[in-house]
Amino acid sequence: MPKLDRVTDTQTAALPAAKSRAELKDKRRRELVLDAMLLPAVILTIIFAYIPMAGLVIAFQDYKPWLGFSESNWIGFEHFQYLFSTPEYVQVIWNTLIIAGMKMVAGLIAPFLFALLLNEVRRNSFKRTIQTLVYLPHFLSWVILGGILLDMLSNEGMINQFLGAVFGMEPIFFLGDGNWFRFIVVTSDVWKEFGFGTIVFLAALAGINPALYEAAEVDGASRWKQTWYLTIPALIPITIVVGTLSLGNILNAGFDQIFNLYNALVYDKGDIIDTFLYRIGIIDGKFGFSTAVGMFKSLVGFVFIVVAYRLAYKLANYRIF
Amino acid sequence: MYYKSKSYKTFTILNYTFLTLLSIICIIPLVHILAVSFSGKSAANANLVGLLPVQFTLEAYAKTLANENFLRSLWVSVQRTGLGTVLSMAVVILAAYPLSKEKYHFRRRNIYTWFFVFTMLFSGGLIPFYILVQKLHMMNTMWVLIIPGAVSVWNMILLLNFFRGVPKDLEEAAFIDGAGHLRTLFSIYLPISLPAIATLSLFSMVGHWNSWFDGLIFMTDHKNYPLATFLQTIIVQQDFSKVAVRPEDLENISQRTVKAAQIFIGMAPILLVYPFLQRFFVKGIVLGAVKE
């Protein structure tokens, strides 16, 4: 995320202050135009972002739609207690952490390695072709890819056919077995995003001073040594940034993807907070309870984002705001 | 010279092979679905189709394009993508300009910035948002698909950073000539920032085209489904109850080749804008990701 305060106030302080009262008045008037330009965005944000935050009160209510916020009974932390005392619900939280965690690790390693390999390609046309092809899946939605994967992973699908023909394997029930399901979720996520994730690493690689490599060559370092002592250390800061920032997503295991791949057979291992929230909230209409679940998620997410941003600043001197 | 050594040459061959395989893996599923969509019904059902069509026919496309529900959803998607992108870009441009000013020129800038950034960090979540939409009577309207998402804080930040790169001399010259902020924005900032605006518009278009969840929960009548939601319902959920009234409709949408054709039409616009998108976006992303 870009820094919002690139120009520090020390620079602006050097500018001469407004000279006269009239000039000051003129400046204030001009600022009102800026306020007016922000007005549409402010109004929309108040309505669609801040008002729903006020709606969080129903997490502490036995909310009944026909009674509304003011008439529904207050029940304190009952929903939260219920969430943490029901084994199936605790399992949902675990599933989220496990799937998100596996995705974070795999999603960091794959682009890193891919960028290193791509960096060794000296023919530009080849490099560009590869990049074009691997970035593409990022732009397709999980509805499209889900549709394709459901078809390819079915018992008679292309993948089972291939495994059967080459290795003589029995068809694997990929999307009906919880462990396989998790594997597919992580693999397909890496498949979709590794190309796009490579971009930041390639940018970091482009920023390495070529003189360093020349010096290493003169000293007789092999390519492997150059990679180990030059390239990889140069990538460490950006890796720390990407890694810590993804911590802020610790409770986002990917609603779109899971919702478009899962089914009742794999709820035990594949149900995550967001899909669970949709089922109990929108489908079953338990508004109060699912708001409490959502609030828990938002709060934990908020804490993690703040911690992650601070870590990124401490470890890699990366400032976001 | 390391690249003349024998071991490095071996590595290069292996590396090129591996990267080629990897990029093939990235597009194989798309090629497969395209092949199925052009294949005959019996060949597709017997799983004879790999990466090339078997018994080539356009029947699946003919059936898809004859399906009223599909066409209506396609139209909803086209409308939401067009309207949504224009609205969102208008709001974002208007907001990014004041936020790109230095604090000296716009004292309240930081208050506004935090006001927007906070919504990226914390939200009310799905249910309060759902209740709000119901209370505003936005269910089953096009508005729910384009208005709530119009303020993209992320795009705003990218654009305000781009605006900061506009030479200050140009702006001062405009002010001396008597131009106000609006005039400066439209006559100076916008023409200079065209590449950034094109990139963000394309991102916004892709986002609208791919968006399906809002359609699923806010459109209780399937007639209002955008294409992505329509596809989600019949291809992923395999729920034909809402979109197939007559038995022949059911046959026409549940067939494997027809599903493949629908998937392909669903991603065709992305494949079409992708080459343009790709030219621009690396800069845009890097701007947002790496600091000098």
Keyword list:
heterodimer; A: mainly alpha; MetI-like fold; 2 domains; two-stranded antiparallel sheet; 15 helices; 73% helix; flat; disordered N terminus; B: 292 residues; mainly alpha
Structural description of this entry:
Chain A is an all-alpha fold and 321 residues long. Chain A has two domains: 2-71, no CATH class; 82-316, MetI-like (MetI-like fold, Orthogonal Bundle). Helix content of chain A is 73%, strand content 1%. Chain A has helices at 9-13, 21-54, 68-71, 78-85, 87-119, 124-135, 142-153, 158-167, 178-206, 210-218, 223-247, 255-261, 267-270, 273-283, 287-316; strands at 61-62, 73-74. Chain A has a two-stranded antiparallel sheet. In chain A, helix 6 (124-135) runs antiparallel to helix 9 (178-206), helix 9 (178-206) crosses helix 11 and helix 11 (223-247) runs antiparallel to helix 15. The relative contact order of chain A is 0.12. Residues 1-14 of chain A have low confidence and may be disordered. With 292 residues, chain B is an all-alpha fold. Chain B folds into two domains: 6-46; 58-289, MetI-like (MetI-like fold). In chain B, 73% of the residues lie in helices and 0% in strands. Chain B contains 15 helices and no strands. Chain A: It is a multi-pass membrane protein. Chain A: Keywords: Cell membrane, Membrane, Transmembrane, Transmembrane helix, Transport. Chain A: It comes from Paenibacillus donghaensis. Chain A: It is found in: Cell membrane. Chain A: The chain crosses the membrane at residues 37-60, 92-118, 130-150, 194-216, 228-251, 287-312. Chain B: The chain crosses the membrane at residues 12-35, 81-99, 111-131, 143-163, 184-206, 260-277.
